[in-house]
């Protein structure tokens, strides 16, 4: 089993961060959170992390003249804290190929839709507008595209006739809190093997370094 140090990127309240912290505290994920980085100074995710004694950094996008400088600042923080796995927990900015290449195959994201349907920032709105009967969430590896990396885990929820974006989001979020820690655990236990677009999950007995 690999000793992983997680670097978690957030933009908002950090409810997925909280679910990951809780899973680590329950010793379900054998890893530590090395740093939590937010792109907003007032992101509540930073408060959640500080309350648990986790190092935090605000790397604010508007403080930098260029996107490349912003991402370099985040990468510098990741490297300074020894991060081995980057986790996007409600991080609302698309990463450039430069950032992705710095952690190739070592960036996980959660998206509030059943990819490849409804990528982007308005998944619940788009799902309701399309009239789907089932929605859900997806944990995937991050590549250079928009929510286009290989899928690790998915969970579905029914879409109700009277759903709003808010009610659907709340139902999906319950599943996000369940499968995101599970996917991180699978990664940390070295049980994921990627073959093109397919991610194979190995039984626990077959994990370990290749």
TrEMBL record:
Keywords: Purine biosynthesis, Transferase
Matching Gene3D superfamilies: Formyl transferase, N-terminal domain (3.40.50.170)
Residues holding (6R)-10-formyltetrahydrofolate: 67, 109
InterPro entries per UniProt: Formyl_transf_N (IPR002376), Formyl_transf_N_sf (IPR036477), GART (IPR004607), GART_AS (IPR001555)
Catalyzed reactions per annotation: N(1)-(5-phospho-beta-D-ribosyl)glycinamide + (6R)-10-formyltetrahydrofolate = N(2)-formyl-N(1)-(5-phospho-beta-D-ribosyl)glycinamide + (6S)-5,6,7,8-tetrahydrofolate + H(+)
Pfam short name (any one): Formyl_trans_N
Function: Catalyzes the transfer of a formyl group from 10-formyltetrahydrofolate to 5-phospho-ribosyl-glycinamide (GAR), producing 5-phospho-ribosyl-N-formylglycinamide (FGAR) and tetrahydrofolate.
Protein name: Phosphoribosylglycinamide formyltransferase
Species this protein is from: Selenomonas infelix ATCC 43532
